[in-house]
What we know:
The complex is a heterotrimer of chains A (158), B (134) and C (1263).
Chain A lengths: L3 H20 L8 H20 L9 H17 L5 E4 L4 E6 L15 H4 L4 H13 L4 E7 L5 E7 L3
Antiparallel strand pairs in A: 1-2, 2-4, 3-4
Chain B lengths: L1 E7 L5 E6 L5 H24 L8 E4 L8 E6 L5 E6 L8 H20 L6 H13 L2
Antiparallel strand pairs in B: 1-2, 1-5, 3-4, 4-5
Chain C lengths: L22 E7 L1 H14 L5 E3 L8 E3 L3 E5 L17 E8 L4 H21 L5 E7 L1 H6 L6 H11 L8 E5 L6 H38 L8 H17 L3 H24 L4 H4 L19 H8 L5 H18 L3 H21 L8 H20 L2 H6 L1 H21 L10 H14 L4 H4 L5 H8 L3 H21 L3 H17 L3 H18 L2 H18 L2 H12 L6 H16 L9 E4 L4 E9 L4 E3 L3 E10 L5 E13 L9 H6 L6 E3 L9 H4 L6 E7 L6 E8 L2 H5 L21 E10 L2 E10 L4 E12 L2 E5 L6 E6 L4 E6 L4 E2 L4 E8 L10 E5 L4 E4 L5 E6 L4 E6 L1 E4 L3 E5 L7 E11 L8 H16 L9 E10 L6 E10 L1 E10 L2 E10 L5 E10 L7 E4 L6 E3 L4 E9 L7 E12 L12 E8 L5 E8 L7 E2 L4 E9 L13 E3 L2 E11 L5 E4 L3 E7 L5 E10 L3 E4 L2 E8 L6 H18 L5 H20 L7 E4 ...
Parallel strand pairs in C: 1-4, 1-5, 5-6, 6-7, 8-19, 10-20, 22-32, 41-52, 42-53
Antiparallel strand pairs in C: 2-3, 9-11, 9-13, 11-17, 12-16, 12-18, 14-15, 18-19, 18-20, 21-23, 23-30, 24-29, 24-31, 25-30, 26-27, 26-30, 28-29, 31-32, 33-34, 34-38, 35-37, 35-39, 36-38, 39-40, 41-43, 43-48, 44-45, 45-47, 45-50, 46-48, 49-53, 50-51
Amino acid sequence: MADEALFLLLHNEMVSGVYKSMEQGEVENGRCITKLENMGFRVGQGLIERFTKDTARFKDELDIMKFICKDFWTTVFKKQIDNLRTNHQGIYVLQDNKFRLLTQMSAGKQYLEHASKYLAFTCGLIRGGLSNLGIKSIVTAEVSSMPACKFQVMIQKL
Amino acid sequence: MAICIPVITKENYPLYICSIPTENELKFQYMVHTSLDVVDEKISSMGKALVNQRELYLGLLYPTEDYKVLQGYATISKVKFFMVVNSSNTALQDNEIHRMFWKLHNSYIDVMCNPFCNSRDFDNMVMYIMIQVC
Amino acid sequence: NLGSLQPLPPDSNDSPASASRVARITGAGDQNLFTSVYPTLSQQLPREPMEWRRSYGRAPKMIHLESNFVQFKEELLPKEGNKALLTFPFLHIYWTECCDTEVYKATVKDDLTKWQNILKAHSSVDWLIVIVENDAKKKNKTNILPRTSIVDKIRNDFCNKQSDRCVVLSDPLKDSSRTQESWNAFLTKLRTLLLMSFTKNLGKFEDDMRTLREKRTEPGWSFCEYFMVQEELAFVFEMLQQFEDALVQYDELDALFSQYVVNFGAGDGANWLTFFCQPVKSWNGLILRKPIDMEKRESIQRREATLLDLRSYLFSRQCTLLLFLQRPWEVAQRALELLHNCVQELKLLEVSVPPGALDCWVFLSCLEVLQRIEGCCDRAQIDSNIAHTVGLWSYATEKLKSLGYLCGLVSEKGPNSEDLNRTVDLLAGLGAERPETANTAQSPYKKLKEALSSVEAFEKHYLDLSHATIEMYTSIGRIRSAKFVGKDLAEFYMRKKAPQKAEIYLQGALKNYLAEGWALPITHTRKQLAECQKHLGQIENYLQTSSLLASDHHLTEEERKHFCQEILDFASQPSDSPGHKIVLPMHSFAQLRDLHFDPSNAVVHVGGVLCVEITMYSQMPVPVHVEQIVVNVHFSIEKNSYRKTAEWLTKHKTSNGIINFPPETTPFPVSQNNLPALELYEMFERSPSDNSLNTTGIICRNVHMLLRRQESCSSLEMPSGVALEEGAHVLRCSHVTLEPGANQITFRTQAKEPGTYTLRQLCASVGSVWFVLPHIYPIVQYDVYSQEPQLHVEPLADSLLAGIPQKVKFTVTTGHYTIKNGDSLQLSNAEAMLILCQAESRAMVYSNTREQSSEAALRIQSSDKVTSISLPVAPAYHVIEFELEVLSLPSAPALGGESDMLGTAEPHRKHKDKQRTGHCMVTTDHKVSIDCPWSIYSTVIALTFSIPFRTTHALLSSGTRKYVQVCVQNLSELDFQLSDSYLVDTGDSTDLQLVPLNTQSQQPIYSKQSVFFVWELKWTEEPPPSLHCRFSVGFSPASEEQLSISLKPYTYEFKVENFFTLYNVKAEIFPPSGMEYCRTGSLCSLEVLITRLSDLLEVDKDEALTESDEHFSTKLMYEVVDNSSNWAVCGKSCGVISMPVAARATYRVHMEVMPLFAGYLPLPDVRLFKYLPHHSAHSSQLDADSWIENDSLSVDKHGDDQPDSSSLKSRGSVHSACSSEHKGLPMPRLQALPAGQVFNSSSGTQVLVIPSQDDHVLEVSVT
Lengths: 158, 134, 1263
């Protein structure tokens, strides 16, 4: 993973860039989230290849999710997911109490309405990573008080 | 020297195949495709066995008379690299092939992580290996 | 005699076959003695295992030593360099039971010495002397030395410094504890020594062997020789049941040999190897049924073995050992490697092999191995280990196939002579069947012989094998492999001209490749399938496959052209049944890339022309002439949906009109791209209480779509249900030549029925071949609408104002009607509204899609009744727009006088309250009926005008002088200029004159403001009881510059009654006598003076009037009220008086009032009422009138003297109430005097009240 600061800066630029292009009508409104998420997906796919280069093979789904929460998260965000919950029916909730991409904004609810656009890319990252490990999924996110946030992963049973 | 180096995705479709001479490619594709059976078996068995979980190298997959050595290598993400070698060259050491695959893997990762996705480096690496492996 | 010893069988010396796994021990000395102990010995010896420590750090093993005893002969002792380890005597024992010194000296000693010398001569140190003693002998002998002495002697004489080499075995045949001990001791010793010697010699042997191997580079070194040596070692391990070690020996040999071969290939050939390069003459596969194949072993020994012999022998030994080790599956796996390896080695060594010989060898070997394994495993084991054996099966199948091809057994017309010769040669190479398999029915040998014997037999065997193999592969889930074998089978069937059998396999394989997107195999298999289908005469399938191939870029140009030609040829040939169509999916033939409409919004009116231009990307390698390209269109009417009305379509449905179609994913795994894209959106969840953000996030709208399980992809080859729709509506385009690549095709159609047209199918017909795109997706539609001609008239401003010219917009939507020259709109004029027609009014003509098409002058003729507007010529489905000025007379509704004017105003107020707070403009509707050229009925249009002003009047009095005040209020948004206002009396009274008190004639009146006008009434003699007035004022929009036409003034008519003053009421308050001022709390006197101002008038004539001899008088009631409660009226505050009706008649009332506050206090009000005695007749009616009148007045004059009017009202209402309830019984009534008739001269005056002494108390009480 690139140097943290660089990553953060790049990410911010990316978000603002996409939203600018929306204002100029290049991206139709409301698709920005999707656009960012897709970027994330592409990046996630690539990263997972690199991160799994010398790890052990995964035993099962849960094993993979743990990998995402620990190694993957640590490499990208310099910390682990704080809490992983699952219903064992293919739904996982990853909670990060101090999500790196939100820590630059003031904590609490002040900028809450802007939070989601800073989560889209990461949703993509997770989805991309999982998909390259053979798990089709949908990743959504939720913030109620920054910088804590939840990512929900719904796994597609095949 | 290696005469065919295919890369197969986790969905088992050929992502990249480089073979020399190219007129044999059809034969190689048939071989590689058939050998996927064995790969699947090996991968699934690897998943179960607690031993050598870090082992990505699958070893000899599908020996035939003419192309004895069809080595396989599967990443965690189930991307598979193969190496078809003329069975006449037996000097090939396992660890050597191992190293080759490792290089191949790295260069594949580089391509994957490259947003501009130019596979030239990968091509070069493949050619390099083709010539090296002998 | 030594005959009693059981001698080894004669061949045993050199035959490892009978290598009864024993160590050889020689015996010397007293044979009888030995014979006696032998049984016990031979069975006791192996009972106990011994730990065997081994050299080179190999793990120690427990082994049981068995041994066979032979009589000691000198020639048994090994010469130098003897490698026969098996026959090597490991231990030499000398037996004696001598216990007599004499005897010892005489014979035994020499004998021993001789024995030892021999051993020494052969430097053999493994020996032992056993002295058996039994008490029986001692008994009968005299002069006996103690036994020990003999032992000591022997020890001294022979075992110097290795006394342990001499043991005593006492009473071996007895059964006593002592005997037991001595036996055990003896046996242990024996084992130890034996093992020692064994280890020593084995070690030595291994060392020799290594040194021999080191020599392998030297010339003259023979592999075979070395082979024998190392195998000797293997045998020994095998003898000790150390099969692992034995196997290792063979593997080492194997590796060594392979290495040589490789090196040979690399160039440095060992000369001994050239020997193995002799041409292959016999290829009778592996033999694994005997533990050791002596023939081959000997041939090796004799150095006559071929490479195949050597390999076969080696493998057979490895196989045997592996089976001992219970590792049959390793046998299978090694076998496959071996076979591949041999083939390679023969190539490498350039050994000349007759064609097919190897195939035979491999085939036989495979089956041999398989049968061997089956021989030693049960079904269950085999079935669970198919994965290991199936390789051999398929290899055998493969080989048999190639043999079949080689020997011409696959061609449909049997083998020719040449083939037969070849077959014969091959069979010759098999030699005779071996005895061990001779009587097994299904032996590989027999199978092969039979298979090669005839076409039918071959087919049978080949099919058996193939099916078995496929079955096995399938059973362990190696589908791909199974399919691959299946393809070979298909090829076989094709060669046998049995395509119907081949097809299923080809289809299976193809499906498999398609599913995983393997381009080349797909192409290749398709080619085979095409041929197959051609033979089968499945025309449709064949053509479809051909089209797929023709568009396949993995084929050469020629091939593609060929397949394309196939289609064209078929298409061109006259089909047997005319009209018969062959329907094929289009995507392989051509692909729909994009489509666009003209007009671009894909909306066209009935009869309009619509163009659809599509881009088709032809996949064919050559230009293809297409008779017609047809788009089937589905027609649907949605009558009652607003979205389909002309208005909506023409206005809203706009798009760039270009639809792009996703390129069809050619052979690509379906699993890849069958997922719809995520629909992610930002989510904002606000707290219900205060609308603040609770949580934000990202949600996915189409989870249900994405998370549902994937259904297995249907075969790409046959898109289900490619059926030709025969729709009534089609777009057709004939005789198109599709060049390879992109082609533009344009359809034009004239819109007929109104409705929605959905493009469903795209078909291209080449002769009788129809390429069909079954569903056009994304959905493409165009709409056709028809429209009735319509006329809309709407004001430009939001509301029209009466009195001034206002623009009205006329919109004529021609719809399906074409406006001809001379068509005109006939407006029948409304009386109060006129249409002002300026010269330069122009009309715009637009097409329905709002592009301006033309502009024309408008001719308008007006007669008094009719205005006719001649419309400009306009085609159907156009819009004509023009504006006209209309003028509505300002005060039309006011005709009916104020009351009905209010009346008319009422309903409008109701609903206008919304926008206009409080009072709103009075509106009038003008209905204009217009005759339109397109219909016989005339359209009626209502225009609503609002009167900008609201007028009220008031009557003001001063004593007997009278004034009329008119208030004009501007309710509109505009400012106006008011000019020359008039008030005229429309009544008959002649001498009445109205004197305006208004200053200037021109006066602006701004929006939402009022202007007041006042006139004084003057008259000379008796004024009329009522007065009809008409107020009129000219007005014009202040903004407007000079208007073209003169505007009608605004008029307002009203009527004033009883305006003449009859009574003057004057009230005065005097301080108490002797005081200068009134004081709070002190009684003051109130003087009320009522004065009649006129003599009898018309207005007095009512039932209150009483006449007594020329004197008229009327009854009045006065009342003193103080609404502001400044005064406390003491005593009765009202009374009825009889007032003479005569000028200057006065009446004085005196009463007491007390001021409650200090300061200048207004006087209490004094009111007068008519006091009417009860009169049943028209009373109620009359009183109702009076009530209304008062009320209306009170309404009009609110603003001034509020309390009065309100009290009046209350009176009236109260009074009317009581009147209504006391119907019938006589009761007097009150009637307020009209405001004009009473003048309160003291209204507004004030009297000073000063606080009393103890005012502060009051002050306090007040505050």
